[in-house]
Amino acid sequence: MRAKIVPILLALVVVGAVLGIAALMLVALGQDWEDALFWILAAVMLGAGLLVVTMKDIIRCGLAMIVCFMALAGIYVLMGAPLLGAAQVIVYIGAISVLVLFAIMLTQTKDAPSRLVFQTQAVPAAIAAVVVAVLIALAVAATDWGELGERVRLATADMSKVLFRDFVFPFEIVSVLLLAAVIGGVFLAKREPGGPS
Q1: In this predicted model, which residue has the larger pLDDT, 91 or 110?
Q2: Average pLDDT of the residues in 170-175
């Protein structure tokens, strides 16, 4: 009983801290709703990303990945690119995440090892994560953030003209790549248990 209550309490403390900081941004610091919503979406995205790499159930990892992608779509909309937000929802949540979840569910066997491969590589992954975090911190510290004073808004019509007129060939290559991924998923799902691998 106590083992189930501790993670729930920890999650409630984290949610309370995130919402408390958002309220502090609005009330004490005088920032607008967009900044507070950006903070909340960024915290949700980081939390879901942590859940993707730390949970043991791979189906729940896939669901946490969908939450992460949804928060990123919200950040795109906040930053003034609603077309990118819609593409994020349609492509990453509607196609790739669902395809990954179906592939996991269709190819998962009952005699699989109890520990997945990525769970046995925790120490090298932690070292790599610390190195990447240090590199990102150095890059952020070395960047001059004062050059862009206001958010740039790009109209959806202008963005779609650029995407479907100037970049139509890369757009079609991505659609062929997604089609190949679907065919590969069907091939893996239809493979016979005792047949050739």
Answers
A1: 91
A2: 84
Rounded to an integer, what distance in angstroms lies between the CA atom of residue 142 and that of residue 24? 28
Which helix or strand (DSSP H or E) is residue 82 part of? helix 82-87
Question: CA-to-CA distance for 123 and 100, rounded, in angstroms?
Answer: 26
DSSP 118: G
First-last CA distance in the chain? 44
Written as one letter, the residue type at 81 is: A
Nearest 5°: phi and psi at 150?
Answer: -135, 160
**At residue 160, does pLDDT exceed 90?**
no
pLDDT value at residue 71:
92
- pTM for this predicted structure: 0.64
Alpha-carbon separation of residue 176 from 32, 97, 141, 173 (angstroms) = 42, 17, 40, 5
Distance, CA of 53 to CA of 40 (rounded, Å): 20
For tokens 């730390």, name the residue: 54
CB 154 within 8 A of CB 77: no
* d(C-alpha 31, C-alpha 61), whole Å: 34
Q: Which residue's structure tokens are 């509607």? A: 94
